Amino acid sequence: MSTSKKVEHGGARANSGRKAQFQEPTKVIRVPESQVDFIKKWLLQNVKTNDFTDVHHNIKIYPVQPDPNKIYHIPLATERVAAGVPLPLQDHIEQALDLNQYLIRNENATFIVKANSLSMLDAGIDIDDPLIVDRSLPAKAGDIIIAMIDNEFTVKRLMIDHHFEPPKIWLKAENSEFQNIYIEEGQEMIIWGVVTYNLKRMR
């Protein structure tokens, strides 16, 4: 007498689904394609957890290509502006500012990277903020950098602890809802570039 065992594949399984970010089972839902980015941003801003991870396989990187035929000289006021009584700035405009020269130190090594998490919110970096990144600058303690950890990207503040020999490097999140990143033995970390400006839209 023989017995047969029925093997079933597929279907719902208890506690299935990706748990990496929220540490709990997930469900698939259908949403309008035009609302995907809005829903992702809402979740990051409204779901509270101390287990957020924001190391990503891909980031949006755009090369900087100034057009030499389009140079805009913007009037530069020589007086500092206080957030109080308005000043007649028109009387203090003495020179012009070329934003290409002001923002870009090394054209061939400069890129714009769009932030895709809220881990640096307290440093003024929000989701989709365009960050100017210079890959030619040597990173120093306190710089905000784009780092690659085991071939995944993250934006963090570079911290160097000189109490250790050799000095211990770690990455600080500027948002209490996110974890700092401590480089473990065997992990590979590459400093991809140094963030020099945040081109945050104010309106």
TrEMBL record:
Residues 76-195 form the Peptidase S24/S26A/S26B/S26C domain. It comes from the Bacteria. Residues 1-11 have a biased composition (Basic and acidic residues). Residues 1-25 are annotated as: Disordered. Pfam families: Peptidase_S24. This is DNA polymerase V. It comes from Acinetobacter qingfengensis. The lineage of its organism: Bacteria, Pseudomonadati, Pseudomonadota, Gammaproteobacteria, Moraxellales.
